[in-house]
Design brief:
alpha+beta; 183 residues; Alpha-Beta Plaits
Length: 183
């Protein structure tokens, strides 16, 4: 399976996806990686799904190149900006980028909120979820908003992406646990 990156107007990813999917000549599946985040408005928290890479959609195809008809369909669809790396010669995303996409696709249609805890030095430790394995890419943590900002390199561009997390309480020490103090 090959993936092609297409830049579209930010906020119009779903509209572009629906229009391109409706054309029977398009021999590709449109994929919009999404993430779940908690959003607080007027004191109420709710879960929202947002694009992981705002302004980008990915075309998955078995072919090693997009045909003339597919390129024409993509270019003439409203909200299209450009194909990467160039509209005239779109190429599949590189292996490194494909692995990153596969990481997020392994969580289904939406990369859910990760479960984390903080160690004694107040460093984030990811227990499970989409942030697992990406700890080294975390550049900032906002405990109040329950979000971690990570730097992702995709299609030779660097993105800062907010990912949601849920803080799990530290496990209580049992009666036989050594707390490091001598009695």
């Amino acid at each position: 399976m090959e993936y092609y990156a297409v830049q579209v107007w930010t906020g119009k990813e779903v509209d572009f996806s629906e229009r391109i999917s409706d054309d029977p000549r398009m021999c590709a599946t449109v994929f919009i990686p999404k993430k779940a985040v908690m959003v607080r408005k007027a004191g109420k928290s709710r879960r929202e799904e947002r694009p992981l890479f705002p302004g980008y959609v990915f075309l998955a195809t078995d072919s090693t190149e997009l045909g003339v008809i597919q390129r024409w369909i993509v270019r003439t669809t409203p909200n299209f900006v450009r194909a990467l790396p160039s509209t005239k010669e779109p190429r599949p995303v590189k292996e490194k980028d494909r692995r990153l996409l596969a990481h997020f696709m392994s969580f289904g249609k939406v990369a859910d909120i990760s479960k984390v805890r903080f160690d004694d030095d107040d460093r984030i430790v990811v227990i499970e979820g989409p942030l697992k394995g990406l700890e080294g890419l975390i550049v900032r943590v906002d405990k109040r908003k329950s979000r971690a900002k990570i730097r992702l390199d995709m299609c030779e561009n660097s993105f800062l992406v907010d990912m949601g997390f849920e803080i799990l309480e530290k496990a209580a020490k049992g009666p036989g646990d050594d707390d490091g103090k001598d009695t």
